Amino acid sequence: MNSPMTTIPEQLVFELPHRTAMGLEDFLVSESNAAAVALVDRWPDWPIGAAVIAGPRGSGKTHLANVWLKRAGATPFEASAISREAVPAMASAGALLIEDVQKITDEAALFHLLNLVREQRLQILLTTETVPGDLAIALPDLRSRLKALPLATIEPPDDALLRAVLVKLFADRQLSVEPQLVDYVLVRMERSMLAAERFVAEADRRALVLQRRVTRPIAAATLDVLGY
User: Fold this and answer.
1) What would the pLDDT profile of 94-129 be if each residue is shown by its tens digit?
2) pTM for the model
3) GO BP, one example (predicted)?
4) 3.30.1240.10, 1.20.1560.10, 3.40.640.10, 3.40.50.300: CATH of 33-153
5) Which CATH topology does 159-226 take?
6) Continuous segment of H or E residues that includes residue 114
């Protein structure tokens, strides 16, 4: 797609931070993510104090994980930072959020941590981009333990959810757009939450440079530059 607005004037653009609404009431629910929302809603009535949310990058895992983090008073950790030496201090937090389990490097340490969760009746939520059964885990005991945890999977978004996400992302940036523009973008963009985030961020930047509202020509140029 070629657009006369692909090249924009060279101007200074000050990237002001915008606040993304991150409460559960701000999370858009559809069939694709309802199971994950229900999982967070059920806490603290989880049968074993541990659960997994799986979904692709940009699917809303972090949003839901942060909702649980605040409710549980949990401490966040990246799976890649887990080590045998760090496990006792991590367990002392009482409630833990472990993000991106697919990036784990010390499998024995994570297995030890999960044992402590069970023995000490701690609370833990893990997130991963793929379901535990598809993770490249070499340690059989860890693979078995992860597969046994309650799992909620976030599926690819449907049209209704993507449309609502686009509207919300524009609203988070205090941008008003016409419904027809959202529909125009929806049928042309990549089908993912991450693509929606990238589109809105770039459209906002271009509109700021041009000092205009987000119009169809700006949307077309944004789709073009992002390769959609």
Assistant:
1) 999 999 999 999 999 999 999 999 999 999 999 999
2) 0.77
3) DNA replication initiation
4) 3.40.50.300
5) Helicase, Ruva Protein; domain 3 (1.10.8)
6) helix 107-120
